[in-house]
Structures are given as structure tokens and as C-alpha cells.
Amino acid sequence: MVALTQSPGLTERSKFLGDLHQQIKGNFNTKILGKEFTITPGVFSPIGTLASEFLAKNLIVNEGETVLDLGTGIGIQAIIAAQKAKRVLATDVNPKAVLCAKENVKRNNLEYKIEVREGDLFQPIQREKFDLIIWNPPYLQLEPQSILEQSWCCGRNNALIDRFLNESKKHLTKCGRIEMVYSTLGDLFHLLYKADKDSPYYVDIVASVIGRFEVILVFVLTPL
Questions:
Q1: What is the reported pTM?
Q2: What DSSP element (H or E) covers 9?
Q3: Which of 72, 88, 149, 220 could cross-link to 67 by cystine, CB 3.0-4.6 Å?
């Protein structure tokens, strides 16, 4: 169930995603959970994958909450969360994703509620705190060869997961929580061990779905 080292399955999955994105030669429009989105070249596309839409379907956002969407991509989680949230901050390390997310925020008339910033993980957040942090992380343990591959390749040593769990608590309000999606193609054992023993968080699996390549799980992490 847990992938601890590079394997043909990970390489094949990465190639599948790379080939999928090479087919994106220009802007195209799609509808996800009733919302309109533009997908642009050089930005992670959720089409043909499970995690993004599955996380969005299972988001637990309370009325009036402040929300941080890390690695927003085209802005799916931010836009869905904004239906109930008071304010949403969306970030991405990919400048093309930042531009695309801003366009989709405008497309859905949510400029008054969603702000999009460029930066790596919590780097653009400063000292802000949120009731909910949403994260759809890269989980293939391969070295990314481009900024686009950072959308699905996280490197080989779990450093990104460790950074996230180590830094996230200081950006949560007193009763704040994290909702994130993960895959059995990733190092699921490390994620659960780190969250349970080192951080620590109470980890609740709130949804799962079986896909062609993997099982996708949605977690809610609540600080202990």
C-alpha cells in the first residue's frame, strides 16, 4: 500500500501526467462541481485525475471561516471553499498557476473574497492564521524536472511533508484544522506517522475512492 522508494509504478504515473499535460496547447474551459474554470498551458490540470475534484467534493468548510488553499493550481479548492468562507487566500509556487487562478477567481466573480499569492508553501503567508488549511500535495517520490512537475513530484525524502506538518500549526487558529488529500502511491506510512507522532495531529479519514492507479484518501488533521 505504501510506496517508500522509486518504483516503475511511480515513473509510469509521472509519465502519464506529463503526457497528459503536453496535450494542453492552449486555454480551454471546463466545469467542475458547477463552477467555470479556464485551464492554461503550464498549469496542473485536474482533468484525467481524481484527487482535485474528490477533495473539492469532500471539503468541510463552515460558514464565515478563513481559509488557506496551498498549491491552488487553477483555483478549484479556493473557489469551492469560498461558497461558505469569509475569506480565502490561495497560493502557488508556479507563477503560471497564480495567473490562471486569478483568472478563475475573476471568472467566478469572487475577487472580493479570494486573494491569490505566489510563493512556496507557507513562504507568502507571513504570520497569518486560518480556520482551515487545504492542501492537495504532490506525492510521487520522484525528483521534479520542471516547475510543472512539482505539482505531482515531491522529491525522494518526504521533506515537503515534513515542512508542511512542522510549519502548519503556527498558521492555524485556536480551533483550526487541515483538510488534505493523499494517495497510496505516496509514502502514506510516513505521512501518518509524522502527523501522529511528531507533530502531533489527530488524523481522521473522511473519504476515500479507488482509482485506476491508486486509492485516494481525504484526511482532516486536528492539532492535539
A1: 0.92
A2: helix 8-22
A3: 88
What the block records as the C-alpha cell of 56 is: 473539492
Contact 104, 38 (CB under 8 A): yes
CB 160 within 8 A of CB 25: no
What backbone torsions phi and psi does residue 114 show, to the nearest 5 degrees? -115, 130
**Residue 138 Cα distances to 127, 148, 217, angstroms:** 24, 11, 14
Beta bridge partners, 144, equal: none
**Domain boundaries, given as residue ranges, for the chain:** 8-223
Per the listing, cell 480551533 goes with: 175
Q: Choose which CATH entry (3.30.450.20, 3.30.930.10, 3.40.50.720, 3.40.50.150) describes domain 8-223.
A: 3.40.50.150
Residue 184 near residue 215, CB atoms below 8 Å: yes
Cell of 37: 474554470
Contact 94/148 with Cβ under 8 angstroms?
yes
